[in-house]
Amino acid sequence: MAMTQRCDRAPAWAQLQAAFETAGRQFDVRHAFVDDAGRFERFSQEAPYLFADLSKNLIDARTEELLFALARECGLEAHRDAMFAGEHINNTEDRAVLHTLLRAPADAKVGKTADKLREVHETLDAMLAYAEKVRADHTITDVVNIGIGGSDLGPQMAVLALAEFAAPGKRFHFVSNVDGHELAGVLQGLAPEHTLFLIASKTFTTAETMANALSARRWYEQSGGTDIAGHFAALTTNVEAAKQFGIDTTFGFWDWVGGRYSLWSAIGLPIALAIGADGFRRLLAGAHAMDEHFRSAPLEQNLPVRLGLLDVWYRNFHKFTSRGIAPYHSALKRLPAYLQQLEMESNGKQVDASGAPLPAGLGTSPVLWGEPGTNGQHAYFQMLHQGTDVIPLEFVAVRDAAHDLDGHHPKLLANALAQAQALMVGKLDAGGHKNFPGNRPSSFFVFEKLTPESLGAFLALYEHRVFTSGALWGINSFDQWGVELGKVLAKDIEPRLASGDIMGLDASTAGLLKRLGAQA
Asked: How confident is the model over 271-325, as pLDDT tens digits?
């Protein structure tokens, strides 16, 4: 199928380059506010379950108009529609990209994907029924999710984020690292008769996950457990391998669900166990509302599109190589890690969808990083305010607190507002050490409350933002070949650690293997 036109080949690209040279390079957002009394209104908007203020960014109305023209010239709208229609836009794996179908209502009009939607809801209903059964079983006090990547980051982030909505009486643990210290630390506090293990692996062959799963089963049996079928469930499409492991309860998903887009599928079972069937459906509903916004809103009022275009403007014209995110809510502490995978695994590519190398200067994914506020203020904000690199920062704030501790939440919100203001306005100091250059860009997202709906909407917003920038760069945002080479080499190196065989290795790897191996 036809992909988007790569952005550097579109007519608007040259116009954007000219706009950057004449105005963008020296743009000062402080002057822009003085010159335009309506700037806040122009560069902020409501979207489902959240509000976004983009007015502190280094962009003006003319630049955004050119970016909208670029999106249309590249065929962004047609590419978006192709994704929703189930066309195989993941061209290197010849797959559809239908994570949006996972959160569509059962009666949604989805054209030729109607059969898939029925399968989605059959699986969803069965998974949620199981979740309610486990939630009602008071003998199960601990749930251990064993997965990695998308099978860990999304569920872990969401369970933490929505802890306010979790039923009491159950504790949730997440094991992903093949480093045995992690699993051993979790198992120390558990009793086999009170523990449910979830093994999350689409193929039931993921090396790290299966190593941890086998160790968990060994611990269960050695600790006196006798009912593997009752204390292990699998989130996988490989039902036969799960049965051989001893698991009868399995929930599958499909090859058109990428790992980093899978929390909406059976991979989200830990979330459903935490917040219940109703809570999980609310999470899906929030994401679906953002899907509909992305699918139907004109580009000029389409928040994921505006964000994705801003990312292209920053990455390819201002040459900003990273972006920070600071959620001012402790429950969102794992959000930066989740978004790292979503963006960098999707758009960290150096060839376009046809396999042609991208030209020099056409950067793709920025480095995404961050920590919750106010912790980050006492760590890396020094660099954001006074460092030699300009790094756009994104604030996420929640208006209403979920606690009643007096005075805390106003302090938290005041810090978020003040940091965004300080990055922009700066402070002049002739002595230099207390000089803040200002004109440092930021975006500000506001939830009224942190709920399943608002979290679902924000995550879908980010998915579609990543889709937008990837589409303009002309890359395939839905494969991840970059994770494969290290896996292959690890299989060769592992037996060498025991044997000491260094034949054919480079000098550095050979030297390190000698120091780390059993023969050292």
From this structure: 999 999 999 999 999 999 999 999 999 999 999 999 999 999 999 999 999 999 9
378 noted as active-site residue: yes
Tokens matching residue 168? 């009491």
Write the DSSP string, 73-131: HHTHHHHHHHHHHT---BTTTTB---GGGGGS-TT---GGGHHHHHHHHHHHHHHHHHH
Candidate list 319, 434, 449, 487, residue with the active-site label: 487
| pTM of structure | 0.97
Are 335 and 329 within 8 A, CB to CB? no
Level-2 CATH architecture, domain 99-274 = 3-Layer(aba) Sandwich (3.40)
Q: What is the pLDDT of residues 72-119, one digit of tens each?
A: 999 999 999 999 999 999 999 999 999 999 999 999 999 999 999 999
| Catalytic residue selected from 378, 408, 434, 514 | 378
Model pLDDT for residues 487-518, shown as the tens digit of each residue: 999 999 999 999 999 999 999 999 999 999 97
394 is catalytic: no
CATH topology for 7-74+297-475 is Rossmann fold (3.40.50)
Residue boundaries of the structural domains of the chain? 7-74+297-475, 99-274, 482-516
**Is 99-274 the same fold as 7-74+297-475?**
yes
Phi first, then psi: what are they for 505, rounded to 5°?
A: -85, 150
* Known active-site residue 487: yes
From the list 64, 208, 345, 394, the catalytic residue is: 345
